[in-house]
Amino acid sequence: MVATALALEPYAGLDDAACDARIRAAREALGERLVILGHHYQRDEVFRHADYSGDSLKLSRQAAASAAEYIVFCGVHFMAEVADILSRPDQVAILPDLVAGCSMADMADLERVEAAWAALGEVLDPETSVTPVTYINSSADLKAFCGRHGGIVCTSTNARHVLEWAFGQREKVLFFPDQHLGRNTGDAMGIPLEEMVVWDPDQPGGGLSREAVQRARIILWKGFCSVHQMFRPEHIDAFRARHPEGLVISHPEASLEVCRKSDYVGSTEYIIRTVAESPPGTRWLVGTELNLVNRLHERFRGEGKQVHFMAPTVCMCSTMFRIDPQHLCWTLENLVEGRVVNRIQVPPPVADQARTALDRMLEVSP
Ligand code: 13P
Ligand code: SF4
User: Fold this and answer.
1) 289-307: per-residue pLDDT in tens?
2) Phi and psi angles of residue 49, each rounded to the nearest 5 degrees, phi first
3) 139 and 200 together in one domain
4) Could you tell me the CA-to-CA distances from 267 to 147, 157, 158 in Å, in that order?
5) For ligand 1, atom 8, which residue shows the shortest CA distance?
6) Under a CB-based contact definition with an 8 Å cutoff, are residues 75 and 38 in contact?
7) Residue 136 C-alpha to ligand 1 middle, in angstroms?
């Protein structure tokens, strides 16, 4: 007889304190059979239960290295997919709420990327002149696309190393889904803006002339992060006017204008490290998701560091926020009962090709 899973509904009525105690008890019961991975954008009530926290690169390495039977990923869907792809077949990757997607990842899909590849084929031979590069914020089938077309995955940490590798293979790069990470990385490498063109998947031929495609070094998919697009150069100007001694640090999903005006640009892990290593008394303006910035503020105010959020409005990642203590509690108590809920399983042929692209990334990463 197949045991039925504990229902989710009753958990919605639990308050956070009750969940906290029950999550701790479930973790205790599961012991080393369980590892909880938590992305830096998770809310505190969930983040505190993570065995390991990190940016996308660090967490994918953690998933690959973990011996645990259950990998519960407090993050978003593509992260749990990567955990499934990089872990052993007998390990189980779980996402506590299946609705926790990434709106940027959803901006590119296999059908439209294949259509773009075919359209590029009318101008040049993409198999010999274009390396496809997908940001890790993408579905597994796009990573598989890169795997079978000589391409690679990147994260915000290793984008430059990955692009250098990609240009070592072929003269051009098709970069998806985040135009900003692609453009900021190309800009840091000295690639002129005129040689980075935007591919609009809703326009025939991407909305580009043959000449524009032929001239381009990087073809940027027209995707963006709805959180990081809220940060504007004028926020930095206003901060610098008030605090000329202050420092500015941004995530590379922010626009080129914001990144060019920032003192430092890097992944969430890099942002934490840079603020941690700054001298006491430093004042920071940080352009990334609010949960992380609030945590930095709390962690470093004892050292006299001031950490400010870049935008005047609240910008949280609403999909990361879907992972709440109630869903985590429900997931873990089901595991204690021997039932797996919300398993993320990438079909083997897709997983194999996606792993090829991920392994290339892990090899070239610093
Ligand atoms: P990091 O890999 O820098 O943590 O970024 C992930 C992400 O989704 C940022 O929006
Ligand atoms: Fe996706 Fe943006 Fe959320 Fe990161 S912050 S997971 S890119 S929607």
Assistant:
1) 999 999 999 999 999 999 9
2) -95, 0
3) yes
4) 24, 5, 9
5) 137
6) yes
7) 9
Residues near ligand 1 (Cβ within 6 A): 40, 55-56, 137, 155-156, 225, 251, 253, 267-268
Same domain for 195 and 167: yes
Ligand nearest to the CA of 39: 1
Its pTM surpasses 0.85: yes
| Per-run averaged pLDDT (10 residues), the chain, 366 residues | 82 97 98 98 98 96 96 98 97 98 98 98 98 98 98 98 98 98 98 98 98 98 98 98 98 98 98 98 98 98 97 93 98 98 98 98 95
Number of domains in the chain: 3
Distance CA 72, CA 40 (A): 15
The CATH number assigned to the domain holding 297 equals 3.40.50.10800
User: Do both 114 and 181 map to the same domain?
Assistant: yes
Nearest atom in ligand 2 to 103's CA: 8
Q: Are residues 84 and 186 in the same domain?
A: no
Q: What are 30's two structure tokens?
A: 């599961």
Ligand lying closest to the C-alpha of residue 317? 2
**Contact, 251 vs 229, CB < 8 A?**
no
